[in-house]
Sequence to fold (495 residues):
Amino acid sequence: MNDVLARLGWISLETVWLPVAAWTLFAGLSWAALARAKRLHPLTGYRLRQALLIALPATVAGAALIPSGMGWRPAGASWVGLEPAALVEGDVGLAGRSTTEGLGRVEGPAPGASADPAAPFDPAVEALLPVDVRGGPAAKRAIAPTLLGPAPPSGRVDALLAVLGLITLFCGAVAVARLLGVGREIRLVRRISEAAEPVDTPGTDSVLRGLTDRMGVRRPVRLLGAPDDAVPMTFGVLHPTIVLPSRMLGDPESMRIALAHELTHVRRRDYLWGIVERTVVALFGLHPLVAALGRGIDEWREVSCDAEVVSSTLVSPRAYATLLVALGTRPPDVWAPTMAARDSSRLERRLNTMTRFLHVPVSGGLRKRSTATAVAAAAMIATLGACGIVSGEAEIEPTPDVIGALGLTTQFGYLDEETRKTTLKYLQAQVAYLEGEIDRGRMERQQLYDDVEKNARLIETGRQRNLLLAKMWNERLEMLEALKMEMAVASMLDD
Fold:
């Protein structure tokens, strides 16, 4: 069970927790800046808060989709020593293949292999290397452990990863429960729609059609009547529906104000966006910043709607404020964009903001700029967050000509000049890469010698891996020397 939890913790570390941590950094700074931007128009503030929330799942998805090598984490950076013991044997090495692939099943140390922790470098491996490379340069020995960092004891790491896996399971269970709650709210809204009575009086229809034409609402809107104790609300994705209490339907001015408010939600598709936002909050709702953004979006959705309505010439600002106060502070029974304030503090902020932006008209240009700014902010945060946890190490891929050239190790004379240069660069890169792999293998073996009996199988696997790497290094070095000699001869012949 602990192995399963440790594996789950390791998988969730880079797929969930690191992207969430990167998003928290960038979104937290942006959220703090938004809180201080008092002169920002409510519509822009609403869109930017939406962008910060939507950037979270985009960051998690981007971290999984962005190819390796496009990140800005330093090349070669890794989580050495953090892998659970169950994953070390399946470590992925050169060209994405398992380092144990093709080595056969190893039951124990090879005959004659040294098991002395004081002698971590195998003589058979050292014998394959040139004298000036054996043991590794002193500078590499001093720098490499600093770059990779000491590996913690595997037992402690497995325990930490198991705890992380348990936390991941708990968060997943909470997310599933909250998603089911969102589904129940959607079904409850449908029941309210079925229980309400359609309003089709000539006077009401003419007011609704006139407002939809003036406000640019192109979709047909259905108007329903509800009991007097209900609050105005809007719901429906494909077929938007507005619910008004019966007492408003009997007051033409109140009905006109409420319809103008709810039609603004319809035009902006706030109910659809609300479902998306509540889904994200359900998935990541245990995150404090996500919960704060969810509450802020709910508030600024209504604040921005107030600003749009009162800045137009559709209703009287004084009558609008009077109706807001008359509705009081009553949260709806289900979630939906609604005109009523949820508490007295929100009502006070809505009235103050409405007064401050009373003479700032909401034009089509402001709507487009707000949307474009939000899209740019979401893309920037998601890109920075996703690239921040993707390794910057790119694998060298040879061209078809180089692949063919590598099969002609004794026939470089048949290659043209361009192919020889390309092959030379590739071999130089391979030699440098294999040197780094040999050094990394030495350090891994040094760590494994801390517990010889427990890690005997892994030590032998690492030894055989180093043997293969050393042979590959010698082959590439011989090819490099042969190519240099061939190029020197070709240069002499050209002269």
Summary: The chain has a mean pLDDT of 76.
